[in-house]
Structure formats: C-alpha cells, structure tokens
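User: For my dataset I need records formatted as: sequence, then structure tokens, nothing else. Please produce one.
Assistant:
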Amino acid sequence: MKEKGALVPLLLGVPLGILLGVGVFTFGYARGYSYMTDDPNACRNCHVMREQYEGWQKSSHRTAAVCNDCHTPPGLFAKYFTKALNGYHHSLAFTSGRFPDDILITGRNQRVAEESCLKCHEDITSGIRSAHRPGDRSVSCVSCHRNVGHAY
C-alpha cells in the first residue's frame, strides 16, 4: 500500500511542476512581469500594439495619462483583475496565432475606456451628454474623439 500512496504525489507533482516551469519560463520570456507596472513600454511588447503606442506618444494625452489610466478601471482589485483577464486573452490569442492584425477593442474594454474619459472630463462632458438625449448617458466619447488617446 505504501508504494501506491507514493505514486499519487508523483502523478500530481510532475504535471504541476511542468506547468509551473512552463509558466515561469513564459512569464519571464514574454516579460509578463512588465504588465504588472504602469509603464507604457509594456504595451508595445506585442507588435500589434506598436501603432497604438506610437499614436499615444503623438497624442495630447501622453503628458496626462498612461495606458492603465484609460484602459483599466479604478481600484486595485478591478485594475489587476482587468489586467489579468486581458493578459489571459492576449496570451491565448498570441500563443494560438489567432489574433487580428488590427486591434479590436472588446465591449468590456470599451466601457472601461469610456468610463475613464468621463472620470477625467466629467466637468466638460456632463452638459454634452445630457443635451444629446435627455436621460440617455450612452453618448460615446470615442465616436467623435477616436484619435485623442492614440493620434494617427
């Protein structure tokens, strides 16, 4: 019986060890640690994000905001949950090779960015949003200001 009991940790330990090793290697190789920071250079690690990064450098927002200011919600948990969720989807897409050459923002990430616009520009947008349609606050900032954060 002791031999069978010793086999169970081995059967669990080997796959977990391999998974942990691959994860640590990938995290280091892909510079995953850089995504834990607010450094905009982390966003250009992926070739499909270079155009957005270069657009941000040319924009008026480069002196006022970094990527996380617009693309993650406020609050420590919400910020890192969003970063983890996006990181998972990005790594899955890049590992599988199934990603578009033109970046497409998801509905969730568009709402996060929109809320960031409104957070910083509430004083100048409240009148515009209320005048658009009474009671309807669904006016999208990027419908008119598409290139503000990423000038092209």
